[in-house]
User: Fold this.
Amino acid sequence: MSEAPHVEVKGLTVTARNAAGEMFPIVSDIDFALRRGEVLALIGESGSGKTTIALTLLGHARPGATISGGSIRVGDAELTKLDRSALAQLRGNRIAYIAQSAASAFNPSRTIMDQVIEPALIHDLMPRAQAEAKAVELFRALALPFPDTIGVRYPHQLSGGQLQRLMAAMALITDPELVILDEPTTALDVTTQIEVLRAFKAVVLERGATAIYVSHDLAVVAQMADQIVVLSQGRIREAGAAAQILHAPADDYTRTLMAAAHPAIRPAPEKIALPAAPLLEIRGLTAGYGKIGKDGRPRIPVLRDINLTIERGATLGVIGESGSGKSTIARVIAGLLPPASGQVLLDGEVLPPGLQGRSRDQFRRVQLVFQNADTALNPAHSVGRILARPLAFYHDLKGNAARMRVLELLDLIRLPATLIDRPIGGLSGGQKQRINLARALAADPQLILCDEVTSALDTVVGAAILELMAELRRELGIATMFISHDISTVRAICDDILVLYSGTMVETGPRAAFGVAPFHPYTDLLIGSVPEMRAGWLEESHAGAAPPPIGGTGDHPDLCRFLPRCAARVDGLCNTTPPPRRPLAKGSQILCHHGDESLIPS
Amino acid sequence: MIASAFQRAKALPLSGKVGLALVIFWLAVALFGPMFAPYPVGAFVAYDVFDGQSAKHWLGSDYLGRDVLSRLLSGARYTVGLAAAAALLASSTGTALALTAAVGGTKVDEPLSRFMDMLISIPSKIFSLVLVAAFGSSLGLLLLIAAFTYVPGNYRIARALAVNLAQMDYVQVARARGEGRFHIAIAEILPNMIHPLLADFGLRFVFIVLLLSGLSFLGLGVQPPDADLGSLVRENISGLGEGALAILAPAVAIATLTVGVNLLIDAIGFSGKGKGR
Assistant:
């Protein structure tokens, strides 16, 4: 404790000029200090100023903003007093930065090795050969595949998780004393996130670097941080040791964040006496892009043999990682992508495969809500116009009657009536997502297809949207297909769950079946990869362990898609024979060679 | 409406304000200028050719002793009017075809785009020369030539914009709602491409002014005794050695008109981008 802190920030204030030309603070009165080798987490929602603070530790303020007060000391350097060239000496050398989206941080026209060793060469720290040797050593430490040869590849040949780790290698090549990680795993799937977190933690610990970890996800932070600083609207709400913040938060805001991270399990509403046909039924659906071949499969298949039903007023959760085809299901149901084979039945009637031939009433009954409200709402239209269009289109409501209904809708989604004439650009992310939802409700639908509706939102705002959806469902009895990558959200709100891996249904069943083992190996990996809000989880978790070795795989098109990553694969069976669909005792159905007895009871 | 236009004008950078002033000036000249012309367009009023500035003839006299100011005021009307009409025709045709291509799918898009590629390969000056030589010069023909020449360029830009916008989620939502193609093109796509299209319109306008001036300079544009700015330059070319006002004035007029429009569209394009598009 006698040692002076390694990094110390005191009274930091960053100001920016607003549209009217007035200066206003983005962050103010920020104090924190950390000792050498400690990890400090900055946590908060978007707009809380966490990235702004992280950037000031590089002596940088974004265009338009200036560091207007306070001191930032890293080691013996006072960053606020350094000029441009002295800062350039520090950056990428003693202080390194790892950005959120590695995919856009790499130059696509240069090889990985060139870019990873660039900081060392720019700062003249070591000769090229030595830098390359060191890079390979880092690749190995970060558990990258083919560490000796990965350097000659180009960014587009690597996955997002690999690029994120390569960016860490780039940052660490100069042995920096301070590493700033700005939401490094936010853009990754949970199953990739756990691998990247492991690699980061090992490397940061091993090198004894001081680190600042910026994130909105408390559970992720719990794995990494010694200290946590909770930010809201540019001010520190609470700061302290990680264990204290996680287990005994003192501030209300921190408690809100914690609560939002754990969606409450909602009881399923009473089932209504069911008519003969389910609301939506999908039979033997195969879909994809490109020409349809002789065997009835498209050239680039996205979905294979999907069968599902949604009862009236029920909620079906569809989970999978990016690229699993979960959004494609919604596009097929909505008619945007005609399937290669299979049928979609609405209320027992077969829907025409594409948009052509669907009646206006069929359009009305199925509504699509996209993930990103920023792009799903036409920026040239006002709130009122967006909500009035479905009213006019489906229900012939015009003029005053339409306006009254729009006001009702705004009230339904808990937005003030004064927003009606606002352009879309002036709304916040959460407000936009509500409008997005209200537009679907305006049609008076029977089924809403929700594609990752909360993914682009902050946890607290997302939780409010989920709350609203649950309420609407209770009041209006609308069935929902809830597409998400987040298994805890899906488990909290859905009646039935479908797990999708690479376009195949690997496990389906009622919600209850997803609370107890055994699971399909992929479901197991998904559930095991969701970080828990306690320190030490990362070390204990067995998710993402290396799969057992197998021989060469046959070229049967229906072999298990999860085979290359499966921890329970069996040589001579999984790589030669397509898996059967079999029921488990707990009530779900899996696509696997294993059954109740042979699956790992995790 | 007027208030908001005024607000926008106030928000323009200095270069944009200069451009706006020049554009308004030339529009006013085109609209009202001929009313204030001191002499009839074709009248021989001065005793001297290439006379300098005087109280009777503010911009001197031309190679036949006609009043330059009167001729300039009427020439501006031809140049601005023809160019504006042709640019409007070219832009609206190009944009309409582009929207058709964007919502029509590959079957409409491919033939239309290849046809436009073919048109774009025809050199515009030669094309106009051939047509004028074949049919003789008339205002209607000049208008059609200018418009036709610049349709493919506008089509390309508008199509690139529209095809991108057609992939946006809000267009997908509209399609999934069952909206027709016309509604999607007009209500969902068009409003979001207005800004770049305005910039493009300004550019086409300038090109057309230059094309018409070039044709007039070759003697194939507006025919005497009427004259547009380009023909004013040509007919007074013999005064170039003397530095006569008769040739300077229309040359400066073309320059200020085109530079003004360019400054304005640059400023509009910039503030359009700044609005977070």
About this structure: The mean pLDDT of chain B is 84. Chain B touches chain A through 17 residues (CB under 8 Å). The radius of gyration of chain B is 22 Å.
